[in-house]
């Protein structure tokens, strides 16, 4: 059996489950559609990709202050309340927020690793675990930022769930090139140039996908693009030249915000996919309390088959 690591952008998945499934109520009236959906997604992905290792990567801080200090608009539109000395409060529907602790409990009872890092997002955890993993890696996410991790030589690809988990796309270097006209190792610079409204990243004013791709095709990377804008002898047109130069304050800081961390100190020792639940008694109690019998039984069966 060849080793394979499956890294889940957990919030991306449970948000999708919450908004994509009808309300399902536990005996006490709590909506548990996201919990059930997440368990179903894990079962489906484990069945299809047969990983030997799995981590549910977690946002310990969904909007790290060090990123906000560099670009104050970063995810600002999602903030409900700013909190000193703690992560800001994200706009999350209350029926979903109530399910997050339940997910953690169920995953713990299964013995499935939940990995986060104080002051960092799940993207950073994924970036670190995918780097130097020593085995092929599949990253499950609806976040295009993680395309920067795609690396055919290292066996890292993204299973992109933008159209749904059941209709996910396998993103490798050829896919990125065909979709955006840039290499995967240029994707972070591409995202920096064009910006991303969903993350509050303004990008370079007047530079969209096509212009960003053409600039990187001509000059290699962001540093090369900026150098070309400062050099009057380059063939860079006056419009793009002015736009790049005018965006200097943004371009000074944005690459650090856009780049996912790859060097966090994380414990990789507990990522092996369990064959049986770590705490079957606790899992049984949780399944009954939260009306999770069907998705729990399915995942138990999937893990058992995977372990044979």
Please explain how this structure is put together.
The protein has 308 residues and is α/β, with parallel strands linked by helices. It is built from 14 helices and 8 strands. It has a 6-stranded mixed β-sheet. It has a two-stranded antiparallel sheet with strand order 3-4. Helix 2 runs parallel beside helix 14, helix 8 crosses helix 12 (248-258) and helix 10 crosses helix 11. The model has no long low-confidence stretch (mean pLDDT 95).
What's the structural blueprint in terms of helices and strands?
Elements: E1 5-9, H1 10-20, H2 33-49, E2 53-57, H3 65-70, E3 79-81, E4 89-90, H4 94-97, H5 100-110, E5 113-115, H6 122-130, E6 137-141, E7 156-160, E8 169-171, H7 173-180, H8 187-194, H9 209-219, H10 222-230, H11 238-246, H12 248-258, H13 280-289, H14 293-307
Parallel strand pairs: 1-2, 1-6, 2-5, 6-7
Antiparallel strand pairs: 3-4, 7-8
């Amino acid at each position: 059996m060849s080793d394979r690591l499956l890294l889940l952008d957990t919030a991306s998945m449970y948000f999708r489950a919450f908004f994509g499934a009808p309300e399902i109520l536990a005996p006490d009236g709590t909506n548990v559609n996201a919990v059930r959906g997440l368990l179903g997604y894990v079962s489906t992905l484990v069945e299809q990709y047969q990983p030997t290792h799995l981590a549910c990567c977690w946002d310990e801080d969904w909007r790290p202050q060090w990123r906000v200090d560099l670009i104050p608009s970063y995810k600002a539109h999602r903030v409900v309340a700013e909190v000193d000395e703690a992560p800001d409060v994200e706009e999350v529907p209350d029926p979903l927020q109530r399910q997050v602790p339940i997910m953690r409990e169920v995953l713990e009872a299964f013995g499935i690793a939940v990995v986060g890092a104080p002051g960092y997002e799940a993207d950073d955890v994924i970036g670190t675990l995918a780097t130097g993993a020593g085995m092929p890696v599949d990253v499950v996410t609806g976040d295009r930022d993680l395309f920067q991790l795609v690396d055919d030589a290292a066996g890292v690809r993204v299973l992109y769930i933008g159209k749904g988990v059941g209709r996910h796309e396998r993103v490798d270097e050829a896919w990125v090139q065909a979709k955006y006209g840039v290499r995967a190792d240029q994707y972070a610079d591409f995202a920096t140039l064009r910006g991303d409204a969903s993350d509050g990243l303004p990008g370079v004013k007047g530079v969209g996908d096509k212009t960003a791709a053409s600039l990187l095709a001509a000059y290699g990377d962001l540093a090369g693009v900026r150098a070309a804008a400062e050099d009057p002898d380059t063939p860079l047109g006056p419009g793009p030249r002015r736009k790049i130069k005018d965006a200097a304050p943004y371009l000074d800081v944005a690459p650090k915000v856009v780049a996912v961390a790859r060097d966090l100190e994380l414990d990789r020792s507990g990522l092996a996919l369990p064959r049986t639940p770590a705490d079957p008694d606790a899992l049984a109690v949780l399944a009954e309390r939260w009306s999770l019998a069907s998705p729990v039984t399915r995942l138990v069966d999937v893990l058992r088959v995977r372990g044979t």
